[in-house]
């Protein structure tokens, strides 16, 4: 595989000049945005969902169970990565993308219409778990298939075009946080718990049919269409690409940790800093806007200067700045200070995450790219993302230290430094 060659030029190709490339951007971004909107919304509504579906006499226990349910779905992601990722390598990116968005819509609908614990008892949390498992399975194949689809339409500008995946996640953060802020400020607690929390999930469903239609009518990615497809992508990876899989998974860690840190911040601000839900959600919007607006800029720069400088710089700054920032915020909890912290997190997150998809696509050859990217991404997300909220909540409760959240972030950053260095010096990626 000539990974370095894929990075070395920024000359436009016929694939990039064709409108099909931008249709690929739109179709990939819609599905990714829907996935992340649902994921972020569930986390943003964690306090309300805990009360309605997992009621206990202890609020911390209810919140832990809610985040555990959030995390359980991530066990399905590697399975989805294997099934849908391998499907994309065998049959094509288009077929896999159409399947994943259909499954995602079904999972979202189940959450939107699910009766509460007070209405149907234990069937309510069981239904939420089922919906989250289905979403986890579909999401397992979404990122790898959609990112492979993007980079294979523009092989010489992988950084720029794959960064739109990250920009769409920024849009999801903005929409989910905006939904949380509007609902918490405009509705009473009774209205929010009765019906208000369901509205954003129904809104998310509106995105699905458009995405399904666009994906159904796409052409296959040119690079995949010209390649000799393998019938055994998973076996090929396990036979000769295990080191690439390990490095790929490690390179995803910081992206995962930083996103779920942003996702967790509204809960942290309310529970640990005593701030209002409206203020905490509003501050989160800033991080999402930074991610939305600056991801294509970072992606473009990574095509020129390489992926690893941005990823290494971000990881090192997370190690150096996280503890001082949270220490300062805990001593001076205010909306303006929370805004500053979320702004710094948003910049560092974008700096790393917008460079990462292109590096991940460079790690695997086209024949195993869908499976390899899906597995790498979802192994890291399962371990470091799905249980982030529960792990941080548990760490704070056990240590009785608000700053325990920083231990999780710094640990993830150090692992990502090692993975990025391995990609640079062992695989010779820049």
TrEMBL record:
The chain crosses the membrane at residues 60-84, 96-114, 160-183, 195-214, 245-267, 279-298, 310-329, 335-354, 375-397, 403-423. It is a multi-pass membrane protein. Keywords: Cell membrane, Membrane, Symport, Transmembrane, Transmembrane helix, Transport. InterPro entries: H+-coupled_symporters (IPR051084), MFS (IPR011701), MFS_dom (IPR020846), MFS_trans_sf (IPR036259), Sugar_transporter_CS (IPR005829). Residues 24-428 form the Major facilitator superfamily (MFS) profile domain. It is found in: Cell membrane. It comes from the Bacteria. PANTHER family: ALPHA-KETOGLUTARATE PERMEASE (PTHR43528:SF1). Belongs to the major facilitator superfamily. Metabolite:H+ Symporter (MHS) family (TC 2.A.1.6) family. This is MFS transporter. It comes from Collimonas rhizosphaerae.
């Amino acid at each position: 595989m000539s990974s370095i060659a894929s990075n070395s030029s920024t000359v436009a190709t016929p694939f990039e000049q064709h409108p099909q490339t931008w249709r690929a951007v739109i179709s990939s971004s819609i599905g990714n945005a829907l996935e992340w909107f649902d994921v972020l919304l569930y986390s943003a509504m964690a306090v309300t969902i805990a009360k309605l579906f997992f009621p206990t006499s202890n609020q911390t226990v209810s919140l832990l169970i809610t985040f555990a349910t959030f995390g359980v779905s991530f066990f399905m992601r590697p399975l989805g990565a294997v099934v849908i990722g391998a499907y994309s390598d065998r049959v094509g990116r288009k077929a896999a993308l159409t399947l994943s968005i259909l499954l995602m819509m079904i999972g979202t609908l189940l959450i939107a219409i699910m009766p509460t614990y007070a209405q149907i008892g234990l069937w309510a949390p069981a239904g939420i778990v089922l919906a989250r498992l289905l979403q986890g399975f579909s999401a397992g194949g979404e990122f790898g298939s959609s990112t492979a689809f993007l980079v294979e339409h523009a092989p010489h500008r992988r950084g720029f075009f794959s960064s739109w995946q990250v920009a769409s996640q920024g849009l999801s953060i903005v929409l989910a946080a905006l939904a949380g802020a509007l609902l918490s400020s405009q509705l009473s607690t009774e209205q929010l718990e009765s019906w208000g929390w369901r509205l954003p999930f129904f809104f998310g469903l509106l995105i699905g049919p458009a995405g399904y239609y666009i994906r159904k009518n796409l052409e296959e990615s040119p690079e995949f269409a010209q390649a000799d497809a393998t019938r055994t992508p998973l076996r090929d990876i396990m036979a000769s690409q295990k080191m690439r899989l390990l490095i790929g998974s490690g390179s995803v860690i910081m992206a995962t940790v930083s996103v779920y840190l942003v996702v967790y911040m509204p809960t942290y601000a309310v529970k640990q800093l005593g701030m209002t839900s409206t203020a905490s959600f509003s501050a989160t919007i800033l991080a999402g806007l930074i991610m939305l607006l600056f991801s294509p800029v970072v992606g473009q720069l990574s095509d020129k200067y390489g992926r690893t400088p941005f990823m290494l710089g971000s990881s090192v700054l997370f190690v150096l700045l996280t503890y001082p920032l949270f220490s300062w915020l805990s001593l001076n909890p205010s909306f303006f200070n929370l805004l500053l912290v979320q702004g710094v997190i948003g910049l560092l997150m974008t700096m790393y995450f917008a460079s990462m998809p292109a590096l991940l696509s460079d790690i695997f050859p086209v024949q195993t790219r869908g499976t390899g990217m899906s597995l790498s991404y979802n192994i890291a997300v399962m371990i470091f993302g799905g249980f982030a909220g529960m792990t941080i909540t548990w760490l704070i409760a056990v240590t009785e230290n608000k700053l325990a959240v920083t231990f999780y972030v710094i640990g993830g950053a150090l692992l990502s430094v090692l993975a990025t260095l391995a990609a640079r010096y062992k695989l010779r990626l820049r």
